[in-house]
Amino acid sequence: MTDDEKLFAKFYNEEKVLVKDMDSSQLRQHREELSKIAFEAKARLVAADDEIREKKSKDKTTKNWTISTENTQTSSDAIAAVKTRTARMSKMDKLRIDLRKSNIDEDTINEMIRNLERRATEKDVKAITFKSPSIETKIVTVKTGNESNGEAEIEVKQPFDSSKLKFGTK
Fold first, then answer.
1. pLDDT for 107-153, tens place per residue?
2. Is the backbone of residue 62 left (phi > 0), alpha (psi -120 to 50) or beta?
3. Is 29 left (phi over 0), alpha (psi -120 to 50) or beta?
């Protein structure tokens, strides 16, 4: 038991012996008196705490709460982290706008941004794969021929595929 628990047990046992022989009306009256004593004690404690706080604020030697003007490494690192995050987020916003302009659906844009943010924040991520549905794109050119016979020539070309480029090989 702690000292407070021992003191509580002592007061409790003394009060239990005192109220043992009281009837209901006497118990209620006694409880009201104790309630007033507790209320008075609480008011006195608050007044004493206020006085301590006022004296501490007037004391010129204890100004621990003032802000130091030292530029510590941790504070400059925190400021730099906020600036870095702001720059990264503005780049992501610009990237999101550019992707919207290129008519990419919102789900794919969100996945791309999420993966890029993961790549930027997690050190162990080496590569990112996008699991978006593949859309077959073809370039269709219609050339009208001789209009008298109503013939037209249709030419289908595959678009430029950058994945087939080989860099650094001879």
1. 888 888 887 777 777 766 666 555 545 555 545 454 545 444 545 45
2. beta
3. alpha
Residues 6+ apart with CB under 8 A from 152: 142, 143, 144, 145
To which H or E segment does residue 124 belong?
none
Tokens 């302009």 label which residue? 101
Pick the closest to residue 161 from 141, 142, 140, 137 (CA basis): 137
Structure tokens at 141: 């050119």
Nearest to 127, CA basis, from 135, 115, 136: 115
Q: Does pLDDT of 49 surpass 70?
A: yes
59-78 pLDDT per residue, tens: 776 555 555 555 556 667 77
Cβ atoms 141, 157 nearer than 8 A: yes
CA 153 vs CA 18, 23, 138: distances in Å: 112, 112, 16
Positive/negative CA dihedral, 110, 116, 120, 125: positive
Question: Quick check: pTM over 0.90?
Answer: no
The pair of structure tokens assigned to 15 is 């009060």
Higher pLDDT, 158 or 118: 118
